[in-house]
Amino acid sequence: MERLRWVQQCCRQLLAGDSRRGWYSDGLPTSSLLNTHSPRGRVCGKQRTVFPRNGRHQQDYERVSRNYKSNAISTTKYTFLTFIPMNLFEQFHRAANLYFLFLTLLNWVPVVEAFQKEITMIPLLLVLIIIAIKDALEDFRRYLFDKKVNNNVVRVFCGTQKSYVDQCWKNVQVGDFVHLSCNEIIPADMLLLYSSDPHGVCYIETANLDGETNLKQRQVVSDFPLQGEEFTPESFHSRIECENPNNDLSRFRGYMEHSNGVRVGLHSGNLLLRSCTIRNTETVVGIVVYAGHETKAMMNNSGPRYKRSKLEKHLNTDILWCVVLLFVMCLTAAIGHGLWMNSFKESIFQVDTETPPALAGFYIFWTMVIVLQVLIPISLYVSIEIVKLGQIYFIHNDLSLYNKQLDSRIQCRALNITEDLGQIQYLFSDKTGTLTENKMVFRRCSIFGVEYPHEENARRLEVYESENTETAVCSVTLKSGYSGKSLSCRSLSCNRSSVSLHTLTAEPMEEDQLSGHVQPRTGAFCSRMAKEVVPDPALGRKLNWLTNHSSSETPSSMELTYITDFFLALAICNSVVVSSPNQPRHVIPEERTPLKSLEEVKLMFQRFSFSPFSALSPSQIKGSPHSLKSRLFIRGKRGSLTLSTPVSNTTDVSSSSQENDSKPDLSAREEEEQDVEDQETEDDLKDTQTNPDEARQSMQDLTKQVEEITDELVYEAESPDEAALVHAARAYRCTLRGRSAESLLVDLPGIGSLAIQLLHILPFDSNRKRMSVVVRHPLTGQVVVFTKGADSVIMDLAESPTDQTEVYSHIKEKTQKHLDAYAREGLRTLCIAKKVLKEDEYDLWLKAHMLAESSIENREELLLESAQRLETNLTLLGTTGIVDRLQEEVPETIAALQRAGIKVWVLTGDKQETAINIAYACKLLCASDKLLTANCGSKDACAALFEDLILEVQGGESLTALTGNGESMSSSFILVIDGRTLGWALEDELRSNFLELSRRCKAVICCRSTPLQKSQVVQLIRDHLGVMTLAVGDGANDVSMIQVADVGIGISGQEGMQAVMSSDFAISRFKHLSKLLLVHGHWCYSRLANMIQYFIYKNVMYVNLLFWYQFFCGFSGSVMTNSWVLILFNLIFTSAPPLIYGILNQDLPADALMELPELYQDAQTSKTFVPYMFWITVLDAFYQSLVCFFVPYFAYAGSDVGVLSFGSPINASALFIILLHQVIESNTLTWIHMVVLVLSCTSYFGFVLLLSGFCVTCSPPVNPLGIELLQMSHSLFYITCVLTTVAALLPRLFFQALCNTLHPSTVLKSAHMDTVDSENYCRRMQRWNMTHSKTNRRSAGADNAGLEPSLA
Amino acid sequence: MVKQESESANRPDNTAFTQQRLPAWQPILSAGIVIPGFVLIGLAFIGIGVALFVTSRSIQVLELDYTGDSNGSPCSSCSQSVVTNCKCSLNFTLTTLFQGPVFFYYGLSNYFQNYRRYGASKDDNQLYGDLSYFTSPSSSCSPYDYDSSKKPIVPCGSIANSMFNDTFTLTWTVNGTTNNVPLDGKGIAWWTDYNIKYRNPSVTPLKNAFNGTVKPINWAKPAYELDASDPSNNGFVNQDFLVWMRRAALPNFRKLYRRIDASGDYQKGLPAGNYTIDIAYNYPVRAFNGAKKIVFSNVSWMGGRNEFLGIAYLVIGSLCVVMSIVMLIVYAKFKFPDEE
Fold first, then answer.
1. Interface contact flag, B24 A1228, Cβ < 8 Å
2. Of A1165, A1176, A1178, A1175, nearest to A1086 (Cα)?
3. Nearest Cβ partner of B254 from A344, A346, A1199?
4. What's the distance, CA B18 to chain centroid?
5. How close B247 gets to chain A, by Cα (Å)?
6. Closest by Cα among A788, A865, A772, A886 to A829
7. A1186-1205: per-residue pLDDT in tens?
């Protein structure tokens, strides 16, 4: 099987036409989740020491580096000399080949010899040669690719010449200094020592490695003394200690010890990975630490995936039955032969009389094994592989699975589970990026407890939506007709649920309100949308006040601080890389001339220097215009805080070149304070007189300005949320303009560009569910932590400042309310918080953090701890609501899948409300569905709840059973379970109850679930219900789920390629699933199942002919056929038709399958390939072989017919029967079928006629000379053949016709519907739609929000 | 333009083949198609069946068992004794003309010429006249490759050794006069066997080729003396030998012995009258409970007499018609199924 995997791999790549990445692109980055189990990382706990190879440390170098692999790679399996023995050795690891070998060897034993020795070798040789050729080609391709890669040229420092010289990749050694220019590919894993970038960063593109095209930033080893000036390898004397090679792409630990003993910590940010590309950096120099096969890229080459399909497992039992059958037949022959021998006293025609009958019987047993060998359809395995390749070819080439926008087809990564697609019973879907676009658009926000609904923004989104399709509008109007009824239904379900369940429908008020907001549904996504955020007028006015202090609505200064910090956080609390089409990405653009004069900037500055901790009167929170008095009071407070700030710290800000105009002079500031206040008072007075029109004017200015910027900057974010937030901030003129390792350049409204000193980034991880940046605040000079994260986490961490508990908790309360509303609306919520650090606090933390950073062991844990230490006592600034639109046709797809009998589960990390809302939007939930919510605080409560819920569900089921048929759809149960409860549910004690419950539910929604839980759920369902599961997801958090499921599908979306890399199939849209499953899955399954049955039938039928003959030749293992024909009959003459059958047959047209997803259920429950079908097939084969043998037998009985002459009509009619049987079984016959059938016939007759004409002594002992020619000149031959063929096929024909008339199966019905009865079909579809839309009206609130208000 | 092309480089070809939309014939086996088909097949089969049946009836076959198992039969003495060259004779009477051309067969039953090891026990190269195989026959002939004195047996092997060696002469008695019925022994073997597959070594006289070899153990005469009357009918191309070497497929078989020479009185076949067959009874069959018989038969376009085929065609044909009637009833009942 191993060989076949390679073949498949080869063919897949050929099919994919994607040899660009070739060998490197396969099975790449598996999740870090898996990598932690990597044995290599653990087993060798030793470290690797690297000395530079610059001539200075020759001895050390040679001592240490002797065992390090060089950079030459060889991915070939064989060399020229070892190919034959190694390939043979590998091939004989397969059971099939061993069986063939056994038969061949058996035939060499004289007493059991059945055929000529050469003939039994033919099947084996054929298989071996075909596979060997494929292996050789594959290996040769790899060899060529290796050669190409190895001979790439790179500039490497040569110790003797003291300069960089061109070297082949294969000659690069560990310790070499490699000099790379922009757009060059990195030849080995190396530490970045020098970058031409002034900030010591370099950008790499990892597309070759993981397919992600966004740029990753890498940094020069921190504190590297040579930084800045031109790097000279000779002067490098440091020693590098790092961990041994492992396959974890995201982890690298080590330190560099300088000659003076100072150690510098190394991390993955310093490491340039092999096969990545240098971008946007002129030159870089690095020292190689891992080379060749020890690089992380090479160690991640795990090769293609191999999964065993359910059908294949099933097939094995059938094969086992064939073995039993073979055994019985051979035993019969052995006993028969013994008895037969026993009946003779002496014999004139016997060759040997000495062998006792028992022994002769034993010999005959083995002879019969050889004679009847074809009964075990060993070639079936090869045929299945070929058929699957064909199926993959068609799936791969399907136009409807092609995404025009991305120019991507479906990728079939696992090649041997195509038929599993036809048997899926449970579908586990991720939400974000799978059901939704994962293209985030800023929708609304809440700051300082004030909600900014961004109505304008909503309208904009609506416009985009309505532009999409007219059909969407149509369906909306249709559904609205049922709203009257739906309302009553809803209230019914409300009543029910209010008794025992918490449901969303319990808050009708909220819902109506929500329906006013947009719920994006379908439609092609325009990336413009994410960028063009229309600012909320209220918020815009408040911000504008900063610019010209002339807003009519004057916010409180505290609120203003919140707002500014909020947008500042949006702009900087991320890892977005900024680039613009005109400029290289890494260069921080020149600062623009500030909008105001220096003096004014300083004034602005002062105005901002409010601490969030400053005292605040409750009246201010309510938005009352601030009084001069209170502001003065605040000012004073701030002043005292500023005093505690050491002046020296601020000088760091000036490290970048922008110091002259934006850098605050703190010492001066305090002195000027008094003046400023005076001036402000004047401003305030001015404000009150401002014309309201001015505000509008300024709004227009603002938008204009935003558009201007839009054209210039390109943000490359790791996650779309980040990008959406940055864009949102830019809409409010808080623009991120550039980023380097130490500073960020941000435009602030009314101020212009500011350089912000970036102290730390604490990157996002799924444990903390948040990220933070530590910066020196550009306006206050304080060390500030901005944190952005999941609401649950931030809300827990956000603590009220001791002196203002009341005020603060009020804000928090309000924000929480907004959060809940956002979630119900289906928005993704993120909370923004900040924390001001005192310098001594910061110093304390910094020390601990540095320690954590430089440690080699437990670095991750320490960093996590360190981050957690910092992210406490946060001050909540506000929250954002981001819209993630549903992908197009998601509701339709889910509806189709549910009609197909597939239970759809949604596993998401999102909030419960968000998840439920999305579920409504995508019609996973209907209004009449009863929502069972499981949120438990303890395990016992959970157990009790499950009991209750099961009772409830059973009650509901019996009710439906009582009321009768039909509307069972309307009262389904939907289980919503949160992560914590899920954790208990997955434990042993509650598992069975959970299964029982979830089995009875139409759908299950798991929210707040971790990646591990996702995979546990899939595993639980798969193992305990014994069903076929499919997991679909797009992100790294879905990887484990995808790997656990029987079929894993990755969606190549916004979140990198990890899901795709671990998946079996990779699609680009969720809607492709319906075609993939309903059509291709169905086809693949029915094709393969039918082909396997046909294959078994064919073998049993043919082998039985030989068996029946044994009754007339004393069970002596004699055959009535030339042994060539016997061997080639299966191998050549009848081998192509089943393949064509397996690749091309369409039991139903694609349209019918798409429109009637119910048809999927046939295959789902293995209807086509149930055990009794196997026995029916075998029985039919027995019958046909009986007819095929005994009709000629009686026709020729008593005549002077010779052995081979007798076999001739039998073989011919067997061929006809086998081929026509397939025609009967085929649902579609194209010209390809015809050509293959004709070719099969002609190849058989051509071969036998050739033998009969020219084979004089070629086939001893049974010489076919003249047989067929003579036979075919007799009319008896044709009379017999016609009678045999018709008699053999008659029952099947009759049975099928009778069945089709009596019980027209759904299959046939739809076929009729499709062709004959289209009118009736339309009627049915309409009726179905009607009943369905009735049940759907609940989702209208979420779905057609834009149109609903007019009705409400 | 170039950019656009490269943008959709991955787009699959939109052909009927790759999109699996090839025009296809969909054989849906429903009553509407099957009923006329069955009727047609049934009628055709009944027609063929009647023709076959009538033809088969017109073929005359005369079988005479001469094994001599029962005491009353003419050859019982020969079957009991072990003496060689035992003679016996059979009498039969034809009341009407036995339509010619008449074929004269000998038949054996319970004789397994298809036994695997028996069938393999010959040397095709030797029989092809290759002299090198005369001195060293193939091991497949074992144990009939060398005799007890290690001399090679030619022709070697079990088939040749067990060659049928009863001989028959047929006499016709009419009006008191006894005539020898002329038997034609030429052309009873296959053309390909006689001309291609079997050859005598090109040595004259033929006897010399067999120097240093011995005749098969059971044979009375060596191969080159099989037919004393016709020197060209000797060696491996002896017609009787060729007929015997072509193994029968089934354990009850007959082999062509002679044809009645269609000349003189026998131009139209065997005329009515009393006939006597004189048998040189040599071949033992009691050891395997076999039986021997003599068969006279004439042939038609469908070969020898075989009533099975005619009956089978009639049965299958009628079955088809019955099935179509059943289908018709079913179809009439379910033609308009209620669409819910």
1. yes
2. A1165
3. A1199
4. 52
5. 5
6. A788
7. 999 999 999 998 888 888 89
Partners of B287 on chain A (C-beta within 8 Å) are 344-348
- Treating both helix axes as pointing N-terminal to C-terminal, what angle do A1082-1110 and A1136-1144 enclose, rounded to 10 degrees? 160
The pLDDT of residue A234 is: 76
User: Under an 8 A CB cutoff, do B249 and A1196 touch?
Assistant: yes
Residues B277 and B331 occupy one common structural domain:
no
pTM of the complete model:
0.73
Give yes or no: residues B238 and B321 share one domain: no
SS3 state at A34? helix
On whether residue B214 sits in a domain, the answer given is yes
| pLDDT one-digit tens code per residue, B53-78 | 999 999 999 999 988 877 777 788 88
Whether B14 is covered by a domain: the verdict is: no
Q: Return the closest-CA partner of residue A735 out of A753, A717, A760.
A: A753
Residues B111 and B55 in one domain: no
Question: What pLDDT digit, counting tens, does each position of A950-996 carry?
Answer: 888 887 777 665 554 444 444 678 888 888 888 888 888 888 888 88
Select the residue from A1076, A1283, A1307 to test the B interface by mutation, using most B Cβ atoms within 10 A.
A1283
- Best of A15, A1200, A1269, A1306 to substitute, by most chain B Cβ atoms within 10 angstroms, is A1200
Residue B265 lies in a domain: no
Nearest CA to CA, how far is B176 from chain A (Å)? 35
- In angstroms, the CA A341 to CA A355 distance is 9
**Closest chain A residue to the Cα of B23, Cα to Cα:** A1230
Residues of B in contact with A404 (CB under 8 A): 8, 11
Tell me the mean pLDDT per 10 residues along chain A, length 1352.
47 41 35 37 59 75 77 80 85 77 84 77 82 81 85 84 84 86 85 79 72 68 60 78 79 81 80 82 85 78 60 81 92 91 67 74 90 81 84 90 82 80 89 76 84 77 49 33 34 31 33 35 40 75 66 64 84 77 44 43 46 36 36 35 35 38 40 42 41 48 46 68 83 81 78 81 77 84 86 78 69 86 79 87 87 77 84 85 81 89 86 79 79 83 86 76 48 83 86 86 85 86 88 81 87 69 84 90 89 91 93 88 86 89 87 84 70 87 95 90 91 94 88 93 93 77 79 90 94 84 60 50 56 43 35 32
Same domain, B227 and B308: no
For residues B117 and B167, state if they share a domain.
Answer: yes
**Distance (Å) from the alpha carbon of B67 to chain A's nearest alpha carbon:** 16
Residues B227, B311 share a domain: no
What is the radius of gyration, based on Cα positions, of chain B? 30
- For B249, the closest of A1205, A1296, A1297 (CB atoms) is A1205
Reply yes or no on whether A803 is catalytic.
no
Whether A1226 sits inside 8 A of B27 (CB atoms) is yes
The minimum CA-CA distance between B214 and chain A, rounded to whole Å, is 18
Judgement on whether residues B112 and B211 belong to the same structural domain of the protein: yes
Q: Is the peptide bond preceding residue A85 cis, with omega within 30 degrees of 0?
A: no
A428 by Cβ neighbours in 10 Å (0-12 / 13-18 / 19+) ranks as buried
Query: Span B310-336, mean pLDDT?
Result: 87
Interface of B with A in 236-295 (CB under 8 A): 246-256, 284, 287-289
| B6, part of any domain | no
Range of the domain at B38: 33-59+302-335
Q: Does any CB of chain A come closer than 8 Å to the CB of residue B53?
A: no
| Residues B173 and B218 both lie in one domain | yes
Domains of chain B: total: 2
Q: Quote the tokens at residue B231.
A: 């020197």
